[in-house]
């Protein structure tokens, strides 16, 4: 079931026209930055967006301007380690050619106030379907801060099948709304 949803959602996301995607990314970035400003967030974990994912590079630039300390994940065996990144030059292709930190200072997960979470599909109860590696479920199981799924409105389903190890996010920010599950 999840496999079919992954395939369908990836195809749908890949079909979003570039100009529309750019506008959606801008809306999501503004909402996410507002979300952090309202909560006086000082530290954030962003993912290095690739392919048709919600773009995180605009958010990274804003975080630098607002002096929000930013970390990025790096795959280490079956887990994600987090590292402080000041500049895009500290990222290089890693796991599955996704940009990962190198030559960066290791961060502790409890230092992170907000975690931006990628996904292929989310539901209204804030459960998510990722790419199937379980990396974010393992990370979210140990988090102290808030987790925020970043998604296009088209990625929100009424309900997705969940398993025992699935961990939901606290909020979902789309180009049209903020879903609060706290």
TrEMBL record:
Cofactor(s) essential for the protein: Mg(2+)
UniProt keyword terms in alphabetical order: ATP-binding, Ligase, Magnesium, Metal-binding, Nucleotide-binding
GO MF term set: 5-formyltetrahydrofolate cyclo-ligase activity; ATP binding; metal ion binding
Binding residue positions for substrate: 53
Metal-binding in keyword set: yes
UniProt binding sites for ATP: 2-6, 128-136
UniProt xrefs under Gene3D superfamilies: NagB/RpiA/CoA transferase-like
Keyword Magnesium (UniProt): yes
Family listed: Belongs to the 5-formyltetrahydrofolate cyclo-ligase family.
Protein's name according to its UniProt entry: 5-formyltetrahydrofolate cyclo-ligase
